[in-house]
Design goal:
This protein has helices spanning about 35-45, 85-100, and strands at about 1-5, 10-15, 25, 55, 65-70, 75-80, 105. The chain has about 110 residues and is α+β, with helices and mostly antiparallel strands. The protein has a single domain, classed as Roll (PH-domain like), CATH 2.30.29.80. Strand 5 and strand 6 form a beta hairpin. It is globular, with a radius of gyration of 13 Å.
Length: about 110
């Protein structure tokens, strides 16, 4: 499920969460509610496309992924993982929960 909330600067952010409310990925801030809804729609409709998932490694060897928008810019970033297997499981979870296309506003 996508949870939309407001950050400390009064911008909108979304968090893609699993059924047990574990955060899979968190978005960049959006100043407009319609823009964040459009981004969520794009991610949900394209969640099975591997090209929207950018796999990355930090300098200290941890792994994370970005979810890319239509312009191939980062729309959301995942948590850090200690292994490539964990990273791939995170992407699998993102695909599973994004395709449900459920949105909850918590502001």
């Amino acid at each position: 499920m996508f949870y939309i909330e407001k950050d400390q600067n009064d911008n909108y952010v979304f968090h893609l969460k699993s059924d047990d409310k574990h955060t899979i990925a968190s978005s960049k801030p959006y100043s407009d509610l319609s823009a964040i809804n459009k981004e969520i729609d794009y991610v949900a409709q394209n969640t099975n496309l591997d090209r929207i998932y950018e796999r990355k490694t930090t300098k200290n060897g941890q792994f994370y992924f970005n979810i890319l928008d239509q312009e191939l810019q980062t729309a959301a970033a995942s948590q850090l993982y200690n292994s490539k297997a964990g990273l791939e499981n995170g992407i699998k979870a993102a695909k599973e929960f994004a395709k449900q296309h459920q949105i909850k506003k918590v502001f």
